[in-house]
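Help needed: design a sequence for this.
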C-alpha cells in the first residue's frame, strides 16, 4: 500500500483530529465483507486489499515498470528454472519445450523475515504453545484471536512455503487453483486424493497436520531455500509465484484455528489471517468495518527508485528509497449506497471512496464531462483520477451444464442451444450498454483476451466476432441486425421466443449477485435486450455468498461476471474457458464459471500455455478465440477503462 496519508488540512475535518494523527487511510467497501482471506483460497478482487497486505508471496511486480516486470518479494532473487529431460539429464536453456520433462526452481528465501505477532505463536516458559488446545468455554468467549493476551512470532522458513502449497490439496478448503496446479506439481493430485480419503475416514478431525505429508514436487533445502519442481515448461509459473496461493503458511496458525468453538465464532484463517506482510488485521466486524494496522515485525523495504520515463516528471519517483509502508493504518467501512459514499469522499471523510475498485474514478470523470459545476468542484478539491488500461473483462455467461443454454446432451440439442446463445449474443447490445452505463469508458469485447495483452487483436482474423458482427460497405465492424438474431432463434426451435415443441414462452433466468436499488436500471435494460427476441428474462437476485454457492454447484443458468488479470498473459483469460478449470463438479472449484468444455479448445490451450509470446502462440490464441466465438459460452461484453479516485494528499 503506497498511498501517503497524513498531510490533510484539519480545518473543517469530518473526522476527529486523533484519527488523522494516526496516519491512516480511510476508505469503504460495498456489498459484503470478504468471503475468505485464506491465501490458498482467496481469488476475489475485493479481498486483495487485505490478502496482499497481510501475506507475501515469493515474487511481486515492480510497482512502476511497464510492461509488468517480476521482481523478488520474500525471495532473495528471481531464479531461472533448471530444465531436465525424462531421464533426469540437465538440459540447456534453449531446449525445445517438448524435450523438457521437468523444470526445477531453487529459490533462496530472505533471512530474518518475521511473522506478525499472533497468539498462534505464543508459548510459556517451557516452550509449550499457550493456545493450541483452547478449552471450549474460553474459545467461545472470544470475538477475535487478538482478545487473547499472549502474542508470539518466529522467523519465516522455507518449510512455511511447503506447508502453504500443501494446503492447496486440502479438500475442505476447495482451492480454486488445485485443478490448474495439479498437472504441474508432481504429487499434488496424489496428496489431494490422500487427504480426501483421510477426511472421509475421520470426519471429526479438525486439523490436518500436513507437515509429514509427502509432496514430491515441493521441498525445503535447509531453512532458507525452497525447491519447486513442475512438469514440463511453463513460462507463466513465475506469475503464480507472485500470488498468495503460494504464500507461506505457518503450521502453528493452521493448528491454532483447528478449534470447533473458534470456528463457530467465525474465527479462522478465512477471517483472521496470519502473515509476514506490512499490515496485520486488528479489527474485523463482519459487514461493518475492517482495520489493518502496521505489522511491528515488518522488515525494511523501500520505495523503488526507477520506473518508466514519464514517472519522474509525474512525481512518482519523489519517494525513492523511503521505507514502506507509508501509512500506519487502513480503515475500511461498509457503505451500502454509492451516493452517500461519494458525498463522504467529497467531504474528505474518505481518502478514496472504494479503494478495492479500479473503476471508481470513471464515474467522476464522466460527471466532470457532463457538468462544469462538478468539474470546478473536483478541481477546487484537488481530486485526482489516475487512469489506466487494466487487463480485465466483463461478460454475460451461460452455464454449460444447463439443459437450455448449455452444451446439450445430443448433437441436435447442442445445435439448438448454440443457436440460442448466438442469437442472444447478437441481441445484447453492449455498445448501447457502454454508452449508457459506462459513459463511453469501455470498449466492446470480441473475445476473452483484453487490450494491452499479447494475443489481443484489434483487427485481423479475430479482430471482430463474425457471429455477432459483420462488415459494412466501409469495412467497419457493425453489430448484426436483430432480424438475423430472430432467424437464429427460430432455427433453435423458439420462433418469436416461443418453444415450438410445447407452445410455451421461453423463460430464462439471470442469477444476480446484488439486489441494490442501483442495479434496477441495468436489469431493466438487460431484460429489454432479451425482449427483442420475445424471450422473458427472470432475475433471481440474492446476496453474493449465496450467488457464489450457486455458481460453485453449477445450478445458475445465466450470470454476469468479470475478471481482472492475476498476471499479464493471455493464458490467464483463456483459462477461464478451459474445461479442466471448471467451477462446478470438480475438486478444484476453478474459475471456468460457465463450466465450458470443448475438446479442441482444451487441446489448443494445453499447447499454448507452454509457449512464450510469439507467432506460434498468436496462431493458437486466434484459433481458440474463434472456437469460443462460435460456441458462444459468453456474450463477450466489454473491456472497461479503469480510473481511481483519491484526494490530493
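Sure. Designed sequence:
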Amino acid at each position: 500500500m503506497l498511498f501517503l496519508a497524513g498531510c490533510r488540512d484539519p480545518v473543517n475535518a469530518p473526522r476527529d483530529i486523533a484519527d488523522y494523527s494516526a496516519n491512516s487511510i480511510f476508505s469503504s467497501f460495498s456489498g459484503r465483507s470478504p468471503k475468505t482471506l485464506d491465501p490458498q483460497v482467496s481469488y476475489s478482487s475485493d479481498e486483495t486489499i487485505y490478502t496482499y497486505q497481510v501475506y507475501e508471496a515469493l515474487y511481486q511486480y515492480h510497482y512502476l515498470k511497464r510492461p509488468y516486470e517480476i521482481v523478488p518479494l520474500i525471495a532473495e532473487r528471481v531464479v531461472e528454472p533448471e530444465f531436465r529431460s525424462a531421464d533426469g539429464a540437465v538440459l540447456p536453456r534453449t531446449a525445445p519445450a517438448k524435450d523438457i520433462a521437468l523444470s526445477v526452481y531453487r529459490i533462496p528465501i530472505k533471512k530474518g523475515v518475521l511473522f506478525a505477532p499472533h497468539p498462534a505463536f505464543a508459548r510459556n516458559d517451557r516452550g509449550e504453545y499457550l493456545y493450541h488446545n483452547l478449552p471450549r468455554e474460553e474459545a467461545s468467549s472470544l470475538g477475535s484471536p487478538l482478545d487473547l493476551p499472549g502474542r508470539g512470532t518466529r522467523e519465516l522458513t522455507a518449510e512455511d512455503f511447503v506447508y502453504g502449497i500443501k494446503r492447496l490439496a486440502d479438500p475442505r478448503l476447495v482451492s480454486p487453483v488445485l485443478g490448474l496446479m495439479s498437472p504441474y506439481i508432481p504429487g499434488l493430485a496424489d496428496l489431494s486424493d490422500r487427504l480426501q480419503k483421510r477426511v472421509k475416514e475421520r470426519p471429526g478431525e479438525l486439523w490436518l497436520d500436513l507437515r509429514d505429508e509427502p509432496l514430491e514436487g515441493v521441498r525445503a533445502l535447509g531453512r532458507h531455500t525452497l525447491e519447486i519442481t513442475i512438469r514440463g515448461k511453463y513460462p507463466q509459473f513465475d506469475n503464480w509465484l507472485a500470488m498468495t496461493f503460494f504464500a507461506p503458511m505457518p503450521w502453528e496458525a493452521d493448528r491454532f484455528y483447528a478449534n470447533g468453538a473458534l470456528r463457530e465464532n467465525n474465527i479462522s484463517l478465512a477471517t483472521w489471517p496470519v502473515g509476514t506482510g506490512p499490515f496485520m488485521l486488528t479489527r474485523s466486524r463482519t459487514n461493518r468495518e475492517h482495520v489493518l494496522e502496521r505489522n511491528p515485525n515488518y522488515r525494511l523495504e523501500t520505495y523503488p527508485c526507477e520506473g518508466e520515463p514519464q514517472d519522474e516528471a509525474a512525481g512518482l519517483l519523489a519517494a525513492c528509497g523511503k521505507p514502506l509502508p507509508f501509512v500506519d493504518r487502513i480503515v475500511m467501512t461498509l457503505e451500502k449506497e454509492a451516493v452517500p459514499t461519494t458525498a463522504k469522499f467529497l467531504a474528505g471523510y474518505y481518502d478514496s471512496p472504494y479503494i478495492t475498485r479500479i473503476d471508481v474514478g470513471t464515474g467522476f470523470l464522466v460527471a466532470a464531462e457532463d457538468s462544469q459545476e462538478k468539474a470546478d468542484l473536483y478541481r477546487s478539491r484537488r481530486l485526482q483520477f489516475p487512469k489506466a488500461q487494466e487487463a480485465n473483462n466483463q461478460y454475460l455467461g451461460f452455464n454449460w451444464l444447463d439443459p437450455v443454454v448449455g452444451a446439450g446432451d445430443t448433437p441436435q440439442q447442442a445445435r439448438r442451444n448454440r443457436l440460442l446463445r448466438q442469437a442472444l449474443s447478437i441481441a445484447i447490445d453492449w455498445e448501447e450498454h457502454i454508452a449508457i452505463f459506462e459513459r463511453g469508458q469501455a470498449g466492446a469485447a470480441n473475445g476473452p483476451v483484453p487490450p494491452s495483452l499479447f494475443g489481443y487483436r484489434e483487427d485481423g482474423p479475430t479482430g471482430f466476432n463474425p457471429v455477432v458482427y459483420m462488415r459494412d460497405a466501409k469495412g467497419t465492424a457493425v453489430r448484426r441486425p436483430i432480424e438475423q438474431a430472430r432467424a437464429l432463434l427460430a432455427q433453435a426451435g423458439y420462433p418469436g421466443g416461443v418453444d415450438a415443441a410445447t407452445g410455451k414462452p421461453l423463460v430464462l433466468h439471470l442469477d444476480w449477485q446484488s439486489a441494490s436499488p442501483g442495479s434496477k436500471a441495468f436489469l431493466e435494460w438487460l431484460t429489454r435486450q432479451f425482449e427483442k427476441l420475445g424471450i422473458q428474462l427472470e432475475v433471481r437476485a440474492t446476496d453474493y455468498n449465496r450467488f457464489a454457492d450457486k455458481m460453485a454447484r453449477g445450478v445458475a443458468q445465466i450470470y454476469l461476471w468479470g475478471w481482472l488479470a492475476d498476471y499479464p498473459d493471455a493464458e490467464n483469460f483463456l483459462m477461464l474457458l478451459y474445461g479442466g478449470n471448471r467451477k462446478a463438479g470438480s475438486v478444484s472449484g476453478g474459475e471456468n464459471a460457465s463450466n465450458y468444455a470443448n475438446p479442441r479448445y482444451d487441446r489448443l490451450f494445453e499447447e499454448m500455455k507452454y509457449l512464450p509470446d510469439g507467432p506460434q502462440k498468436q496462431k493458437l490464441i486466434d484459433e481458440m478465440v474463434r472456437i469460443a466465438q462460435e460456441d458462444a459460452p459468453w456474450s463477450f461484453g466489454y473491456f472497461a477503462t479503469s480510473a481511481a479516485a483519491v484526494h490530493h494528499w
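Residues 1-7 have pLDDT under 50 and may be disordered.
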